[in-house]
Design a protein that fits this description.
With 385 residues, this protein is α+β, with helices and mostly antiparallel strands. It folds into 2 domains: 2-23 and 232-381, no CATH class; 61-199, no CATH class. Helices cover 52% and strands 22% of the residues. Helix 1 runs antiparallel to helix 13 (348-365) and helix 9 packs across helix 11 (283-314). The longest helix has 39 residues, at 230-268. The protein is elongated and about 110 Å long. The model has no long low-confidence stretch (mean pLDDT 83).
């Protein structure tokens, strides 16, 4: 029973932790990136207002705004860093991403058209050694042709804010500027790179992207958040499946203990089985006796494991800090992991799957010992009694 309980508990807790990690990282990803983007071929959308109106007319879209994206290099003193520059409308960005709530210094509203302000990720600002109100040089790859050849475009920006998402791809390489300043920097005129949107249900993003794609002109395409981070989420799903298979072996080992227990019981109760047979018990009834015994062991172990697993998964935020404080250790160090606490997200369907699987395994484990008991011959068993 204890073996079955430990296996079920471990399986539920590990799956809940992996769900928690997936949910936490997804929220951090979507804190800096939109749910869905409409992008033009070649990175230049000229009739952005018409496309924006078409996207906003879609019922599943909560908010939408144009943006400009491009690559560049930031220089401050002797430090140079490559960056992904994103031009946004600060007043519209509040409705699309969670970036305004991630500002650690300054405010996103300080990005004003024509003032050439810039908001940097925390790791990027730290690598450059720059602080708020200091000026950095942004170098754009779109250069100007001069008699001396191609000269890159240079523009000085004042740091008006620093944000921290908690994910390296954003914190160490993303820089935000006003969309009008980005259009001037990248020589786009009134054109934009694309339209970013926020959806009512993020889990429906792939379906919405396919439906929206059919309504868009052929030179535009819809790109949802699952496609942008497809490699990561495929890796997480594969890891989750492998962990489920590996931890299911713990339940299988516990079921093997049920087999060995029942085989020993059958051997020990040979005389009793023979007496029952002589009193008129059929092989089927003998088989049912041992099947019931094994199923009861499996049911109790599964129930205890499911209850303790759910209890532990729901209180992991209390149990883990207690263990860390008790033994003076830290499982997720701040200088290594960007998530310092073990998150947990318990799913009822996975609990039902684990308990159902454990019950089926325990039921299958009773078949061989029960069959062996039903084949006991009374004369052979009672010969030496």
């Amino acid at each position: 029973m204890l073996g079955m309980a430990l296996g079920v508990m471990a399986l539920i807790v590990v799956l809940s932790v992996m769900n928690g990690f997936q949910k936490e990282i997804r929220e951090r990803m979507l804190g800096a990136s939109p749910h869905l983007e409409v992008v033009a071929d070649g990175g230049r959308m000229n009739d952005s207002q018409a496309v924006l109106a078409q996207v906003l007319a879609y019922p599943q879209v909560l908010a939408a705004a144009p943006y400009v994206a491009g690559q560049g290099m930031l220089s401050f003193g002797q430090s140079v860093q490559g960056v992904m520059v994103r031009g946004i409308h600060p007043e519209l960005e509040i409705a699309i991403t969670d970036l305004p709530n991630k500002i650690k210094a300054g405010t996103l509203s300080d990005l004003k058209s024509g003032e050439f302000g810039i908001v940097l990720g925390s790791d990027l600002a730290r690598a450059l050694g720059v602080r708020v109100d200091e000026k950095v040089m942004l170098i754009a790859p779109q250069g100007s042709i001069t008699p001396a050849g191609m000269v890159p475009r240079l523009k000085q920006f004042r740091v008006v804010g620093i944000f921290e998402i908690g994910m390296a791809p954003y914190d160490n390489s993303l820089a935000l500027i006003h969309i009008h300043d980005a259009q001037k920097l990248f020589q786009l005129g009134d054109a934009v790179t694309g339209i970013s949107t926020k959806l009512r249900d993020i889990d429906q993003a792939p379906k919405i992207a396919r439906e929206l794609q059919r309504q868009l002109p052929p030179d535009l395409y819809a790109n949802d958040w699952t496609h942008q981070n497809s490699n990561y989420f495929r890796a997480v799903q594969m890891e989750k499946k492998m962990m489920f298979i590996i931890l299911s072996l713990i339940v299988a080992v516990a079921a093997f203990n049920i087999v060995s227990t029942l085989v020993m019981a059958v051997t020990d109760k040979q005389a009793d089985i023979a007496i029952l047979r002589t009193l008129g018990a059929t092989p089927a009834s003998i088989m049912k006796i041992f099947m019931v015994q094994g199923v009861v062991i499996g049911l109790i172990g599964t129930f205890v494991g499911a209850f303790s697993g759910v209890l532990l998964a729901l209180n992991l935020d209390v149990v883990v800090p207690f263990i860390e404080h008790l033994f003076g250790v830290q499982f997720l160090a701040k200088d290594i992991y960007f998530i310092t606490e073990l998150p947990s997200d318990l799913h009822l369907d996975e609990v039902l799957l684990v308990t159902g699987l454990s019950f089926v395994i325990s039921l299958l484990a009773t078949l061989y010992p029960s069959y062996r008991a039903s084949k006991t011959q009374p004369a052979e068993a009672l010969r030496y009694e």
